[in-house]
User: What shape does this take?
Amino acid sequence: MSLFKKIFSSKKKETLDKGLEKSKTTFFSKLGKAVAGKSKVDDDVLDNLEEVLVSSDVGVDTTLKIIDRIEARVSKDKYLGTDELNVILREEIAGLLSETHLGEETEYNIPKDKKPYVIMVVGVNGAGKTTTIGKLAHQFKKQGLKVVLGAADTFRAAAIDQLQVWADRVDVPIVRQDMGSDPASVAFDTLSSAVTQDADVVIIDTAGRLHNKVNLMNELTKVKRVMQKVVADTPNEVLLVLDGSTGQNAFEQAKQFTKATEVTSLAITKLDGTAKGGVVIGISDQFKIPVKYIGVGEGIEDLQVFNKIEFVDSFFNLK
Assistant: This one.
């Protein structure tokens, strides 16, 4: 099928396959039980499939959409065998993801007409936020871009120190102040420094806790406003980092942060250590915000640009 042509490098695809192995194995084990003894897709199979999808952290709303799509196929084709269910699921989930994703991106691209291109990163501590920033900085630097990091998550000293470790590892400059400093002040200094250095990309680490939404909103709004004093219309991107291994809790975090600020892209991390990979499908569909990156391993190269075609291909183990 041409839709599922291979477009990743073989090494990246191998990493993706391996990263989704737990999710895939668990899903197909449940799916096998759901269709056991059945030769055609009927109401019982659909009821069981609904349970499989919900328990795989796809989410209730997205599950119902998928079931509706499959019911429409069953009604149209009159007879669908359970041996075809894998292919049908693959096609319908790819179709659902197409509504949010163009799906052709495989590289770390940023607009050439925005300089510096400013990414503000939000998410709770422990979601892989700082690690994601470090890996992004590495990828952008590999392209020959000049990157500056800003340590504006000033609530914990550990957050600042961790970002410093990544800045040293990737060998990019970092702007930091003491713990407890005003995050907006750090952001202002970071952008000022980036402009002076003629940097291409600025990545600002912020808001490492889900304090009440009003405080969070005020803090992020202030950070944005202060950055705009240096470079108009920034940030260019607000990236929310979610821990995929938390399943439904990732949905709740997405809900809280999208209420607090205008999130424009998502990174879903730690998919390699969990059987909850279905959360990528549900969050992408429910929030209508593109999943831009997925974390499928601990290595510095294991943050991948999310591509719906390759993701569905790996999840359903196509050969």
In short: Confidence is low (pLDDT under 50) at residues 1-5. The chain has two domains: 8-98, 117-308. The longest helix spans residues 60-77. The longest strand covers residues 237-243.
